[in-house]
Structures are given as structure tokens and as C-alpha cells.
Amino acid sequence: MGFSPPPKDPKLRRRRNPTPGFRMLPHEGRSGDPPPWPLPPHPLPEYTKMELQKWADLWTLPQAFEWERMRCFDDVALYVRTFVAASMPAADPKIVTQVRQLDSKIGVSPKAMQDLRWETDEPLPEEEPEPEPKTGDNGKRRLIIDD
């Protein structure tokens, strides 16, 4: 019987090679403070608070590396402003459509990331053990022969 080492900690197991043609982004996301908010403050203070919170949250995502590299601060801010407006009760459906269009431009959703050819070095799933072969009621394997 051979000795097999214990499985690696899932936090240490990573995809190392990007899919050809894709840019690999770190799964942990961007750390540090978000860039300064580039748009004028919203006239309603409660909206400003929601915008700044969403802005800070987005700048922790893996996509933020690309946004910073490409300097698309205004695009991300416009997405945030539109997202907050679309999140309000009775929001105009046109605003929801605008959020989706901006998402496809900046890559917030998994589909938009794929369209932009971005992926993360996310941890690989744990390898599951192979299932045991099926046995009969008495624990013995049954052999069925067709005539």
C-alpha cells in the first residue's frame, strides 16, 4: 500500500495558469483605500452615503486592479451612481438597463468578466473522493448476465 500525502489546504491551492487570452486577477481582490470619489456629491445625503459605501466595496474586488490600471474611475463611479438609483423602490426600468450596460463595460458580474476575458486565480475546489462501487443488499457485488 502506498503512502499519499494529505491534501493541500484549499487556501493554498490556486489556478496558476490563466486561460489563453485571459487576464488573471488575484482572487483576494484589491486592498487599501479606494480612490477618491470623482463625481460631484449627490444632492441627497442618503444617496451620497450609499454611493460611497458601494464605491468602497467595489474597490475591494479583483476587477479593481484593471479599473485602476486603465484609469476608469469615472466609469466605475457612474456605475455606482446608476446602481444606487436602480436600487431604489420604483426605480425606472431604463436605469436598470443602464446598470447592466455599465456592468458589461466595467466587468462587475461574472458574465461581464468573462466577456472582458478576465478571470481570477480562485482557489480550486476540493477534490472529492471517488464514490464506492454499488453493492447489493448483503454487501456483495452482483453479477448480472443477460442470456
Write the layout of secondary structure elements.
Blueprint: E1 23-25, H1 45-58, H2 63-70, H3 73-86, H4 93-106, H5 110-115, E2 118-120
Parallel strand pairs: 1-2
Helix pairs in contact: 1-3, 3-4
Task: Provide structural commentary.
It is a single chain. The protein is mainly alpha-helical. It has a domain at 47-120. 38% of the residues lie in helices and 4% in strands. The protein has 5 helices and 2 strands. The chain has helices spanning 45-58, 63-70, 73-86, 93-106, 110-115; strands at 23-25, 118-120. A two-stranded parallel sheet has the order 1-2. Helix 3 (73-86) packs antiparallel against helix 4 (93-106). The radius of gyration is 24 Å and the shape is elongated. The two termini are 39 Å apart. The relative contact order is 0.17. The model has no long low-confidence stretch (mean pLDDT 84).
Give a concise summary.
With 147 residues, this protein is mostly helical.
Any key phrases for this structure?
147 residues; elongated; mainly alpha
